[in-house]
Amino acid sequence: MNNFLIKNVCVPGLDLDEAHIVIKDGRYDTIMPAVSNEALIFTQNWEEDNKKAVDGRGWTIFPTFTDIHTHLDKAFTYEQVPNYSGTLREAITNYQSALPSFTEEAMMERMRRLMDRAVSYGTGRMRTHINAGEDKAGNIALQAASKIKEEYRGILDLQIIAMVGNMSQPLTKNIELQDVLLSNNIDGIGGAPHLSESCNEEIDDLFAFASSRDLLIDLHADEQDDPEVRSICHIIKQVKKYDYQKKTTAGHLCSLSAMEEEAAFSIIDEMIQEQIYAVTLPAANLCLQGRDDKKNVRRGTTRVTSFLKKEAVIAVGSDNVNDPFHPFGDGDMLLTALIAAYANHLTSQKDISRLFQMITTKPAEIFGQTNHIQEGEKADFVLIEGKGEIELLSVQSGGRKVYRNSRWVSERQETISVWKKGNIYA
Ligand SMILES: [Zn+2]
């Protein structure tokens, strides 16, 4: 089905109530408002020629989602790994203890489960952080992710960020660990240096290694309620030193919300100047942060509205799914967007439109690609049952059709049966 017409579909980004979209050879060939006379004649001719058409009435089209921050290796371990306190500290400790009991096969099955569900919801790109260590268990997770990356290429494209920390020696001197990372097809280096006693030295080491291999940097930064935790300031210095603009991403940035507005704005300005991407992870932060607050319990998410106000590149990621860090979720970015809307006061029409950019075009940019619904661009989209952004966020419809790389890659349906008086089966 290389050439086809999608009729009467809602296209929010183009401010068209309904449009006709012609896809030819995997690209958007023509996009026209559905109400014009030209469109009427066009569809009549199309149908008389018996060409293929998809009825898009009551559906909305978006570029496929990019989930820019996940943890495939940890997904669906909630039953095996408890977290009684609900804190980040206990989640990390308990997961590390359970890690040696995981097999590569079981890990791959859990990864496939999340990948399949994410594709079915409309995700076309995903970046996963994978725990990498000097022991055998660390290698298993990376090997599993590397195989999954090949298995899903073209359906759900995967970037792998190797999360390192607590190393016996710096990565730049750790030839054995370097070999493990580089032999597993990684795209970047990550970690959570703010948790380390030698935070700045760890950041220096990661940048030195990444720049020597032209790898991306994607760090868990300042996932803390303490306003004095500011590893982002040292990250900014290293981006300047290594000219790592547009190759560096900082996720979480929770402490920005805890500090005074002036201090936070100054850091955001420097991030924008150095073209450092920001990612907010609302689901995990709402669960893990603010646990020690005795009153006015904090949301724990970063200052999303401040980033938006300054036109910074910021995206929303799903982070952990059904594991000790976050017990819920199943890879649907529409649900993650709704959580981000609640967590960050994103309720105006303008902010809701920006929210959809934060799960589509913005994270695609961080991924290093473009994905827009424009004539001449590659057709890479999800059709979602429901009309317009507010209805989709409210209804969370399961009806989705996903098209990538010149083919339909997934379809899921929403089925509703209401048994009213008079048609109840006795
Ligand atoms: Zn994370």
From TrEMBL:
GO terms for molecular function: cytosine deaminase activity; isoguanine deaminase activity. Residues 96-398 form the Amidohydrolase domain. CDD domains: Bact_CD (cd01293). GO terms for biological process: cytosine catabolic process. This is Cytosine deaminase. It comes from Sinobaca qinghaiensis.
